[in-house]
Write a structure and sequence with these properties.
The chain has about 200 residues and is α/β, with parallel strands linked by helices. It has seven helices and five strands. It has two domains: about 140 residues, Ribonuclease H-like superfamily/Ribonuclease H (Nucleotidyltransferase, domain 5, 2-Layer Sandwich), CATH 3.30.420.10; about 35 residues, no CATH class. The longest helix has 22 residues.
Length: about 200
């Protein structure tokens, strides 16, 4: 039986070392934003590699060690909820991606960023690509690492604060999460500014 070929592209421009970057947790009510940076070999291939949102949890965790073992270099970084509220989520997401790039063992020639906002990083040129995690392998790989490492963190802190169901909702604004906030109040990991906006003034901070 033929192995299905991924629709993702291996690079934007052949012959240069490109790093793909993506974040996870931007829209959550609680917890940090995570970002990953991944440089893949030009001939890297996996038939199910895709935007993390298009994969099951099982597929994401199956792909993570493959990406880590076969990548030229990879790194993950996080910005916590306190800093998110100080500098806003856009700046925090960019800072997390740039921090991840800075942790790489190999310096890339070019940065591919999922989304439409980024800031110049050192002297490395970059390009923002809307929906990039569904277009380029390196960004898709970064989306998987960012998502799984953030999920791991949310599961870990859910043991400290079990009322909010973070092991299942990962801090996002599900009905059960919002109801738990109404019932139990906020935790030290909640983003207060988010709650004020999303819950339309249900709380006084």
């Amino acid at each position: 039986m033929a192995i299905p070929k991924t629709k993702l592209k291996p690079f934007l421009l052949s012959g240069r070392r490109e790093v793909g970057c993506d974040e996870a947790g931007r829209g959550a009510l609680a917890g940090p934003v995570y970002a990953a940076a991944v440089i893949l070999e030009p001939d890297f291939f996996h038939p199910i590699l895709n935007d993390s949102k298009q994969l099951t949890e099982k597929q994401r965790y199956e792909l993570r060690p493959i990406i880590e073992q076969e990548a030229v270099a990879w790194a993950v970084a996080a910005i916590d909820h306190r800093e998110i509220e100080k500098i806003n989520i856009l700046n925090a997401s960019i800072k997390a991606m740039q921090t991840a790039i800075g942790k790489l063992s190999v310096i890339p020639d070019f940065i591919l960023v999922d989304g439409n906002k980024f800031k110049p990083y050192k002297d490395i040129p970059h390009q923002c690509i809307i929906g990039g995690d569904g277009k380029f392998m390196s960004i898709a790989a970064a989306s998987i690492l960012a998502k799984t490492y953030r999920d791991d963190f949310m599961v870990k802190i859910s043991k400290e604060f079990p009322n909010y169901g973070w092991d299942k909702n990962k801090g996002y604004a599900t009905k059960t999460h919002r109801e738990a906030i109404v019932k139990f109040g906020i935790s030290p990991y909640h983003r207060k500014t988010y709650l004020g906006n999303i819950l339309q003034g249900s709380f006084n901070f």
